[in-house]
Amino acid sequence: MRSEETEFRGGPLDGRVIAVLVGATGKPPKVYRVPVPGEDGAPGTVLVYRLAPASRPRRSRWRYDFDPEGDASSGRLRWPWSRHAGRPAGGGAAGGDGEAEAGTSGSDAGGGA
Predict the structure, then answer these.
(1) Residues ≥6 apart with Cβ < 8 Å to 17
(2) pLDDT in tens, 37-93
(3) How far apart are the C-alpha atoms of 18 and 40, rounded to whole Å?
(4) Beta-bridge partner residues of 49
(5) Helix, strand or coil for residue 104?
(6) Quick one: CA dihedral 18, 22, 27, 30, positive or negative?
(7) Which residues contact 37 (CB under 8 A, 6 or more apart)?
(8) pLDDT per residue over 14-26, tens digit each?
(9) Strand runs (DSSP E) across the chain, as ranges?
(10) Residue in 43, 39, 64, 66 with CA at minimum distance from that of residue 54
(11) CB-based contact 6:62 (threshold 8 Å)
(12) Rounded CA gap, 78 and 92, in Å?
């Protein structure tokens, strides 16, 4: 696997340059998660960094910027055929209302000719 030296900005890793694995296209992942274990039995946290183009390419074409809100779920792949998070499971465009509209417009076109 290939890796590329990538700069981190903000958060605990500010200013560090870490070797990050890159894909077949040479681009690192969009979201980089750093697990931090908790102390004395406390639950751990996850630091989230988002990929951004480097302003001046010193070592790399990319850099990671710290995301203080840490919403790691938004870096997930979203396929066009997947349901959106805000849309209910049964309320798609192929519901009963869409069929009634199609039937109405078809009978209007047939009756007028």
Answers:
(1) 5, 6, 7, 8, 59
(2) 888 888 888 899 999 988 776 667 889 999 988 765 555 556 667 666 665 555 555
(3) 28
(4) 32, 66
(5) helix
(6) negative
(7) 44
(8) 999 999 999 888 8
(9) 3-9, 17-21, 31-36, 45-53, 62-67
(10) 64
(11) yes
(12) 17
